[in-house]
Design brief:
Shape: globular
Strand content: 5-15%
Bound molecules: NADPH dihydro-nicotinamide-adenine-dinucleotide phosphate
Strand order of the largest sheet: 1-2
Largest sheet: 2 strands, antiparallel
Helix content: 55-70%
Structural class: mainly alpha
Oligomer: single chain
Length: 436
């Protein structure tokens, strides 16, 4: 019950404040970030001075209007991804049982879609059919179109949740803003098999991250006839991360984003706009800043980044393997230590979940966020330290994941009660072992 739970995590005043702030501040922020990266040398001071001088009118002037070419790029890309989601073969995968006892079924074809997307995109460039620099040159218009288009899409989700919910995991909190922000449906679908959250989160959002990473690399190559080592490290690490994501996509369908958070502004607008703009921003910065690191430093950063991505993957893998085998697996070479946690579903049924208390999950209750944040740092650090803005994503991710750890702890505490308390006694640290 994502919507109602999320609402109770913070006080009502803080919930409203953060919702309204995000709703009103995120769209202009996306535009300002793009403007600063592309037209103001990545310098926040330069953008600030411009705004001080030209005021609101100046801001309106830099906000690009969505153009026909921007809409065309978005629709062709979206339609291509939707078609791949529907057509490509994949294994039948069942998601976790929802609070109302519903179990979603998926077609796990993410890795195939990822492969087809990148091969198609790079081939279009290679055979001179479509040049990705067109995407970079219209990036502001694309973000502008995405901002408005995704808002309309969230209104559609809100209306669909009211008039045609796809499953029993839906409903209104009784408050329009909360319903719009947190969403109405946990598993909205079009027809029987087109899962909207798989499309918005994975096939549009995460896929755009890889597509834009490649775009930035090609743009730098076309502008300078070579790609700097900093750009190579950044692009490689981001692509390794996104590859890991699609390799593990069926696992993602068991996480909070899919199994607990409903489809609303928070998740869907975030994946449709925030991921393509903010998550890719270190690469956006590097296009016009071809920093030369030297091969030794570049290699160190690359190896450190890959190690962090691997550890993050292994944390998720460990938890899922442990759950999949009902604890009958080896964790770091030994039988896992665990807690059998009983809970009651909304329909009054009593069920049991296993909580892993060894391996990565014995270090801290959300240790997997540490390598996630460090990996983001390593694909940003090739930008060096001339400007703060490339590090915005790392700072944002740190705040997001610390908040997420609190949201998840609160949800698990209310779900598992005394068993969660037992887990907290056994594994006292929330994220950073020995510190927090
Ligand atoms: P997960 O969904 O993987 O884990 C949380 C859930 O796991 C809990 O809600 C609980 O669910 C279950 N759980 C908690 N403790 C245990 C335990 N000890 N043993 C077994 N199960 C347990 O977390 P996230 O969705 O936050 O993270 C998934 C991945 O996505 C991570 O790699 C994370 O770094 C990444 N991520 C990246 C973000 C980004 O923007 N870059 C944002 C968020 C996540 P249950 O009810 O089933 O018990």
């Amino acid at each position: 019950m994502g919507a109602t739970e999320a609402k109770t995590v913070h006080s009502p005043a803080l919930t409203y404040f953060s919702m309204l702030s995000l709703l009103s501040l995120c769209p202009p922020f996306v535009i300002l970030l793009w403007y600063t990266m592309v037209h103001a040398d990545g310098s926040v001071v330069q953008t600030w001075n411009f705004l001080k001088q030209h005021g609101l009118q100046g801001f309106l002037d830099i906000w690009p209007r969505p153009t026909a070419i921007a809409w065309k790029i978005i629709f062709v890309y979206g339609a291509f991804e939707a078609a791949l989601q529907l057509i490509l073969p994949g294994k039948r995968v069942e998601g976790p049982v929802s609070p109302t006892g519903h179990r979603p079924v998926y077609n796990a074809n993410g890795m195939a879609a990822y492969f087809v997307t990148l091969v198609t995109y790079i081939s279009l460039w290679w055979f001179e059919i479509f040049n990705p620099t067109v995407v970079y040159d219209h990036l502001g218009e694309i973000y502008s179109a995405l901002i408005f288009g995704s808002l309309i899409f969230c209104v559609f989700l809100y209306i669909k949740g009211h008039v045609a919910p796809s499953s029993t995991d839906s409903g209104s909190s009784g408050n329009l803003i909360i319903d719009f922000y947190w969403g109405m449906e946990l598993y909205p679908r079009i027809g029987k098999s087109f899962d909207i959250k798989v499309f918005t989160n994975c096939r549009f959002g995460m896929m755009s991250w890889a597509v834009l990473a490649v775009t930035y690399c090609i743009k730098q190559y076309e502008a300078n006839a070579k790609v700097s080592d900093s750009m190579l490290v950044n692009t490689t690490l981001m692509l390794v991360y996104v590859t890991k994501f699609f390799w593990w996509e069926a696992g993602y369908w068991n996480t909070m984003d899919i199994a607990h958070d409903r489809a609303g502004f928070y998740i869907c607008w975030g994946c449709l706009v925030w991921v393509p703009s903010i998550y890719t921003s270190p690469g956006m910065y590097l296009v016009n800043h071809p920093v030369n690191l030297g091969s030794q430093l570049a290699l160190y950063i690359l190896v450190a980044g890959i190690l962090c991505i691997y550890i993050n993957y292994d944390c998720d893998r460990q938890r899922q393997e442990f759950r999949r085998t009902s604890g009958k697996c080896k964790i770091w070479g030994k039988a896992p230590s665990k807690i059998e946690a009983t809970y009651t579903t909304t329909s009054g049924e009593t069920k049991t979940s296993l909580l892993l208390t060894s391996g990565w999950w014995g270090l801290a209750r959300h240790f997997h966020y540490v390598p996630e944040i460090l990996a983001a740092f390593f694909w940003t650090v090739p930008a060096l330290f001339n400007h703060f803005l490339p590090y915005f994503y790392v700072v944002f991710l740190t705040i997001l994941l610390f908040d997420r750890a609190k949201r998840d702890d609160d949800r698990c505490r209310s779900k598992y009660g005394k068993y969660w308390k037992l887990y907290c006694n056994k594994v006292p640290y929330k994220i950073i072992p020995g510190i927090y």
